[in-house]
Amino acid sequence: MQKFQRTTIFILLFLCVPSIWAAETPSEKAAALLDGLIQTNDPGLAVLVAQDGKILFEKSYGLADLEHRVPVTPQTIFRIGSITKQFTAAAILKLQEERKLSVKDKLSKYIPDFPRGNQVTLRQLLTHISGIHSYNDDPGFWSRVTNDTTEAIIEAMKKEPYDFDPGTKWRYANSGYMVLGYIVEKVSGQSYGDFLRENFFQPLGMTNTGVYRAHPGLPHEALGYSLGTNGFEPALNFDVSWFGGAGALYSTVEDLYRCNEGIFNGRVLDAASLKAAFTPVKEYEGQVNSDNGYGFGWIIYRYRELQEISHGGGLPGFSSFLLRLPDQK
Length: 329
Known about the structure:
Blueprint: H1 2-5, E1 8-10, H2 26-34, E2 45-51, E3 54-61, E4 63-65, E5 70-71, E6 78-79, H3 84-97, H4 122-126, H5 141-144, H6 150-157, H7 174-188, H8 192-201, E7 210-211, E8 225-228, E9 231-234, E10 249-251, H9 253-264, H10 271-277, E11 293-294, E12 299-303, E13 306-315, E14 318-324
Helix pairs in contact: 3-7, 3-8
């Protein structure tokens, strides 16, 4: 068990079963945790485990497309939901390195008519302490997603009261990251996807990552499924591109591995940016002085004396998780 926990885990559904104790190598332990978890004809998953820049375990289970019986492979593309946030935060930090903005800037500098925008900083948006109401908390949100746009959601945000005064509390809010994605576009003069591709995807060799649009379909794309009363059925399917910086991306386990290695080894962001990204916000009301919390697009947590830096992502039919133990590489 300890050897398995000392690795880096990508998009992993974790279940402890007794057979792990009979396994010896890290690969055998990983297989013991997962083999038999997914039935051959069920919606599947892909897993990648690496340490010291080397892949220790990579395997896929189940189907990417039930109707056509297409199996999941390590190259299968999944919508990764809120794992997108680490890319948005990295984009803001890259623009700060280029002196095109500062995380201390006020929101009003970029959206002048945003209510109370002169009280909200980009840093507060990055760390979920801005108080801006999260758009997906509204009743009926999921009934509108097939027709919404980024612009319409931002306009709707302006009409919502704040959940709390900026900087006084912490509450996870997709709205803040949608706004940050919009700011990336405004400052860079590029689309959100183009900026990420030029500054992160291409330099890191991520050839199967981008902004998800429902049409046309992508090669090796996994379809989302929900468990209904009569078994698995297609999940709500829609164009998530308008989620922007909050959750618009698709990727593969192999691309997320390349990204994770590249970011933590300083290939796309400098040391000062990484230190800022991995420092939990602490100044809001009720926060205890600890090593746990939310940084810039990453959750920082200490478990059994090991630091974890991670983020999950969820959309109808999709669940993903990306975790790194930096002390264990």
